[in-house]
Amino acid sequence: MDEFSDAFECNKQIDLSSYTYINQTINIMKEDRNLLVAAHLSQLLDLFTGIGGFIVPLVLWLTQRDKIYAMDAHGKAILNFQISLFIYCLICIPLILFFGLGLLGILVLGLFSLLFPIVNAVRASQGEPPYYPINLPIIS
User: Fold this and answer.
1) Residue 118 and residue 115: Cα distance in Å, rounded?
2) Per residue in 43-93, pLDDT tens?
3) Which of helix, strand or coil describes residue 104?
């Protein structure tokens, strides 16, 4: 019984410095409204490059969605808007040939692609959620 009580006493004295703790990943998200504004305004690259308005927000969203507060929601809204614009433009092309209304549709879509990134950049700078009225919920 003496050996058992010695071993029991030895177990009661635990040196905490010898134990290693499991690293727990804690996601601490930063609030960076400037990056959100840049993501919205990067859609205007379509006016100069043709496809940069989709690639730059996609890269920002994929790399920063777990690090920047609200980047996930803003990135999804931006990408849904870009994909929606592309689909609507594809629909307008045959409408040009058949009814001539496709030309009006493309002009309206061009106005939307210029106006709504700027409006949502201002909303992002004020901490408000994004709003694109013609979004198709493709990426959820």
Assistant:
1) 6
2) 999 888 878 889 999 999 999 999 888 999 999 999 999 999 999 999 999
3) helix
- Residue 65 DSSP class: T
Answer whether 93's CB lies under 8 Å from 58's CB.
no
Note whether 53 and 114 are within 8 A (CB): no
Q: What is the DSSP string of 4-47?
A: HHHHHHHHHS--GGGPPPPPPP----B--HHHHHHHHHGGGGGG
Q: Are 130 and 74 in contact (CB under 8 A)?
A: yes
Q: Is the dihedral of CA 77, 90, 44, 64 positive or negative?
A: positive
Query: Structure tokens of 133?
Result: 């009225």
Distance (Å, rounded) from C-alpha 107 to C-alpha 96? 12
